[in-house]
Design goal:
The protein has 282 residues and is an alpha/beta fold. The chain has 8 helices and 8 strands, in the order βαβαβαβαβαβααββα. The chain has one domain: Rossmann fold (3-Layer(aba) Sandwich), CATH 3.40.50.720. The protein is 42% helix and 13% strand. An 8-stranded mixed sheet has the order 3-2-1-4-5-6-7-8, with helices on both faces. The mean pLDDT is 96. It binds NADP nicotinamide-adenine-dinucleotide phosphate (NAP). NADP nicotinamide-adenine-dinucleotide phosphate binds at residues 9-10, 12-16, 34-36, 39, 61-64, 89-92, 110-111, 137, 139, 192-193, 195-196, 198-200, 215.
Length: 282
């Protein structure tokens, strides 16, 4: 990949920002995404200054809204005609139940629905730019079961369960995407970055926040994610879960291919995306 184009959601803070810096240092043209326009423009300007690359760019989008995910895809296309690396990194913890404009529990919407829809809407660009890579930033906290009857706040909200469920869905999505993209030159992998000192801790209950000083710095995790994005050694690796820089087994329930297919089918229904057609670029 010569001057690869990388799109990274949640690139305005924490791991995403640190990863964007490493990618730009390694000659990538980087586009970062975050909710807050002023913060995002400031971060992009700081990265341009820090790395000395004039082409670090920012697009504002609130990924909890499917309409914003669609607008982001359109805006990205208007700016770039290639996409080599899509990093679905944005994520958050919601201690209290929040339903999105589309009626979904917000953790699930940002960590799972947004990556699914953004990836699908940019898949033709990724395929046309192949070799290309999709990287989903998940978490060691990815556990089933997936409760299809509790994705819209139907049951009492437990933040940790909601986070586990959203990340579980994202791992299932990664594996199913890798299967569907076999032979296209587009790979799909997911990564647990480690326990890292970022703003995500701000939203955790007080007891958990006591452990924040023990967490690692974003820089090492950023280098691991950038390696997944750009390293030639990993060009053909697909359908894997990485932790501490190495391929690692994910939770046993993530290898349920039938569940992954069912989730995929339902997600197409929820989001209004057309049913997958292997011959179509999207
Ligand atoms: N830190 C850890 O220990 C840890 C461990 C395991 C997994 N992870 C995962 O790593 C990823 C990055 O998290 P982090 O620790 O770097 O958290 P962070 O410091 O809170 O950063 C989160 C990023 O996501 C963006 N974001 C949040 N909600 C968004 C929304 N609705 N729309 C668009 N952007 C949104 C934020 O941008 P704005 O605020 O500018 O909108 C920010 O850039 C997440 O997927 C998280 O689950 C983190």
């Amino acid at each position: 990949m010569n001057e690869p184009v990388c799109l990274i959601t949640g690139g305005t803070g924490g791991l995403g920002r640190a990863t964007a810096a490493v990618l730009a240092q390694q000659s990538a043209r980087v586009v970062v995404v975050g909710r807050d326009g002023r913060k995002g423009e400031r971060v992009a300007a700081e990265l341009r200054e820090q790395i000395g690359r004039p082409d670090v760019d920012f697009i504002a989008a609130d990924l909890s809204r499917l309409s914003e995910v669609r607008r982001l895809a359109e805006e990205f296309r208007a700016r770039c005609d290639r996409l080599h690396v899509l990093i679905n990194n944005a994520g958050a913890v919601r201690r209290r139940l929040e339903l999105t404009a589309d009626g979904f529990e917000a953790t699930f919407a940002v960590s799972y629905l947004a990556p699914f829809v953004l990836t699908r809407l940019l898949l033709d660009l990724l395929r046309a730019s192949a070799p290309a890579r999709v990287i989903n930033v998940v978490s060691i906290s990815h556990r089933g079961p997936l409760d299809f009857d509790n994705l819209r706040g139907e049951k009492p909200h437990r933040w940790f369960r909601a986070y586990n469920q959203a990340k579980f869905a994202e791992v299932l999505f990664t594996y199913e995407l890798a299967r569907r993209l076999a032979g296209t030159g587009v790979t799909a992998n997911c990564v647990h970055p480690g326990t890292i000192r970022t703003e995500i801790w701000r939203d955790l209950p007080r007891f958990w926040r006591l452990f924040r000083p023990l967490a690692g710095s974003p820089d090492r995790a950023a280098r691991d994610i950038a390696r997944l994005a750009l390293s030639p050694d990993l060009a053909d690796v697909t359908g894997q879960y990485f932790a501490a820089g190495a391929i690692t087994p994910s939770a046993p329930e993530t290898y349920d291919d039938a569940l992954a297919k069912e989730l995929w089918r339902r997600t197409e229904e929820w989001t209004g995306l057309p049913a997958w057609d292997a011959s179509s670029p999207r």
